[in-house]
Amino acid sequence: MIGFEEKRKVQIRPIAEAKARILRSNIGRVTIKDTRTRWGSCSAKGNLNFSWRILLMPKKVFEYIIIHEVAHLREQNHGKEFWKLVQFMHPNFDHSRLWLKKYGEKLHRIG
Ligand SMILES: [Zn+2]
């Protein structure tokens, strides 16, 4: 891995912890995996998994992915309450979702 990816990698846990604190939740283990179908997931125990490809994303989108999974600590589904939490932690998340729509497929194909 090149330098900036390493830097991004070590940022995941502190960002997730800080965001979880806002929701008064706790995260479990943070794991980086080689998943192609999704960017991240959150287990019932609060363990967070992320695709290593998120390390290549622009900072804001990278943060959005983390926030998205952290929001699942409180809301398991993608209902109204879930998006309210995301909005609260990442006010311009629409931009990140657009970016993912536009470039996500390409990124999934890397590696
Ligand atoms: Zn989700």
Explained architecture:
The chain has 111 residues and is mainly alpha-helical. The chain has a single domain (9-108), classed as 2-Layer Sandwich (Zincin-like). 53% of the residues lie in helices and 10% in strands. It is built from 4 helices and 3 strands, in the order αβββααα. It has helices at 3-22, 59-71, 80-89, 93-108; strands spanning 30-33, 40-42, 48-51. Strands 1-3-2 form a 3-stranded mixed β-sheet, with helices on one face. Helix 1 packs parallel to helix 2 (59-71), helix 2 (59-71) crosses helix 3 and helix 2 (59-71) crosses helix 4. The chain starts with a helix and ends with a helix. The model has no long low-confidence stretch (mean pLDDT 93). Zinc ion (ZN) binds at residues 68, 72, 78.
SSE arrangement:
Elements (H helix, E strand, L loop, with lengths): L2 H20 L7 E4 L6 E3 L5 E4 L7 H13 L8 H10 L3 H16 L3
Helix pairs in contact: 1-2, 2-3, 2-4
Bound molecules: zinc ion.
Radius of gyration: 13 Å
Helix content: 40-55%
| Structural class category | mainly alpha
Sheet having the most strands: 3 strands, mixed
Total discrete domains = 1
Using the coordinates above, name the CATH class.
Alpha Beta
- Give start-end ranges of low-pLDDT stretches: none
Q: Give me the CATH architecture, please.
A: 2-Layer Sandwich
Question: Per the principal axes of the C-alpha atoms, what is the gross shape?
Answer: globular
Count of beta strands: 3
Instruction: Report the span from N to C terminus.
Output: 12 Å
Strand order of the largest sheet: 1-3-2
So how many helices? 4
According to CATH, the fold-level topology is: Zincin-like
The proportion of residues in beta strands is 5-15%
What ligand species are in this complex? zinc ion
Can you give the mean pLDDT?
A: 93
SSE sequence, one letter per element:
HEEEHHH
CATH superfamily: Metalloproteases ("zincins"), catalytic domain
